Every structure is written in C-alpha cells, then in structure tokens.
From TrEMBL:
The protein's name in its UniProt record: Mitochondrial transcription termination factor 4
InterPro entries: MTERF, MTERF_sf
SMART domains: Mterf
Tagged with keyword Nuclease: no
Entry similarity comment: Belongs to the mTERF family.
One of the Pfam families matching this protein, by short name: mTERF
Keywords: Transit peptide
Origin species: Tetraodon nigroviridis (Spotted green pufferfish)
C-alpha cells in the first residue's frame, strides 16, 4: 500500500475483523485524509470507549473525521464533556451524529451561548438539547430562533417542555404543519396573556411524536385532508417568508419582556 493509504495490518491490530478493516481502509481514501490523522482518529474513538463496530459506523457516516488533527479532535471531545455530556451520553451522541466532531469547539460554544441568551434555556436544558438533538447546534441560528419563537409565542410552550419533547429534532415545517392543522380545526389555541385557552391543547410531545395515523386521529381528519392542507399552507408560507423581518420587529417590540 502506498504512503497515502492506511495499512490494513495496523487496522487489524486495533481489533477490527478483516472485513471491517478493509472498509476502514477503503474509507480512508476520503479526499484530504492523511494516514497519520486516520490512525489518530481511530485511536481517539477507541479511547472514547467505542467498540470496533461503532467506530466503523462513525467513519461510514462521517469519513471527514479522517481529516481532523488529533489535537483538534481531543479538544472537541473535551469541550462536549465540559458542556455536560456524561459518559454514555457522549458516546451515543458521537455514534448518532459524528459530524459534531467536525466543527470547531468555538462554533458549538457560540450555539450554546445563543440557546442560553436568546432562548433562555438553562445550561442543564442546553445539555439535553445537545444530547437529544446534536444537529441543532449546527443549524443556522436564525432558523433556530424562528422555530423557538414560533413554539414559544404561537404555541405557548415553555422551554422545559421543548427539551422534553425533543423539539429540535423536527424541522420548522413539520412543527408548523401539525400545529396549524390542529389550530384550523379548532383543536389548538394560542394561550392568552394569562396562559389560558378555551380548548385543552395537546402536549407538544403528542403533536410532534405521533406517527401519521395517530396524528390524524388526534386531528379527526383523513390523510387526504392533511395533504391538501399542507400543499395550501406551503404556498402561504413561502409568501410569508419575506415577512420574517416584520415578525422579528414585532418580537423585538412586543416579545422581549415575554420570554421567561
């Protein structure tokens, strides 16, 4: 094997089976990767406590990890620990969403600061978001903020319930489609200033996590009705997107003192 490739023998020595080692080496041909970085990445993942099958899964999902220098990788893992990801949770996050190790620690800290200062999540809640929805920290902060404000102001849901229902796993469209459909059918209401509604709103968890059949049952509707509705509102929302600036202005004037 050439200097630019990972040696099969050194990978087998790490505890991979022959077929796993072949896959690991094939993935190391990822552009920009270097055998030295590839070996140190594999070592770092073992030190983290992952077994060979999990390491392979991580590299298959995210071969870019082969291009990350050892010191950066260690710094990023240490940073996630500092943000409250304990043993077990940390490993699950890395296996589920290895891309989290491809971004500078600084970018993740910026997202954490944003969630704490703009959305007023506690540090404990932010750790919950990192654990359950790690991709959220790489999302555009304007999108995150809009989703947060939509659920907070329009749906009247507080931070603790957002974290519990793993809100940030869902796109804004998924949240909006389901909420608006229930709202237009008279099954969901924005709470008034005192948090009161005339109907009993279903919990966010039920709105988001029900499968399609359970959701349609909740909405007392057919799949056809929901499909037609989604097509119509998509058109409305595309027209509304450019009004985001006006909505933001309203939030600044009306909403500042309301996020608690």
């Amino acid at each position: 094997s050439s200097q630019s490739e990972l040696a099969l023998s050194s990978v087998v020595e790490m505890g991979f089976t022959d077929s796993q080692a072949e896959q690991i080496c094939a993935l190391s041909r990822f552009r920009g990767s270097n055998p030295k970085h590839a070996l140190s990445t594999l070592t770092a993942l073992f030190v983290l406590g992952l077994n060979p099958a999990s390491v392979l899964k991580v590299i298959e999902k995210c071969p870019e990890l082969y291009t990350v220098k050892e010191a950066q990788l260690q710094q990023r893992i240490t940073n996630l620990r500092k943000l409250g990801l304990v043993e077990g949770s940390l490993q699950r996050v890395v296996v589920h969403y290895p891309q989290i190790l491809t971004v500078p620690a600084k970018r993740i800290r910026t997202a954490v600061t944003f969630l704490r200062e703009k959305c007023l999540f506690t540090m404990h809640q932010v750790t919950g978001i990192l654990r359950d929805s790690p991709a959220a920290v790489l999302e555009n902060t304007n999108h995150l903020e809009y989703k947060f404000q939509y659920v907070y102001f329009r749906m009247g849901v507080k931070q603790a319930e957002m974290v519990k229902s793993k809100l940030f796993r869902f796109s804004l469209d998924e949240v909006r489609n389901r909420h608006s459909f229930l709202e237009r059918r008279g099954l969901y209401q924005t709470p008034d200033k005192n948090g009161q509604t005339l109907v009993i709103n279903p919990r966010l968890d039920r709105v988001l996590h029900s499968d399609q059949d359970a959701f349609l049952k909740l909405a007392s509707a057919s799949a056809e009705e929901y499909d037609v509705f989604k097509r119509l509102v998509e058109r409305e929302w595309r027209q509304e997107e450019h009004q985001w600036a006006r909505w933001e202005k309203w939030i600044q004037e009306e909403g500042k003192e309301k996020i608690t």
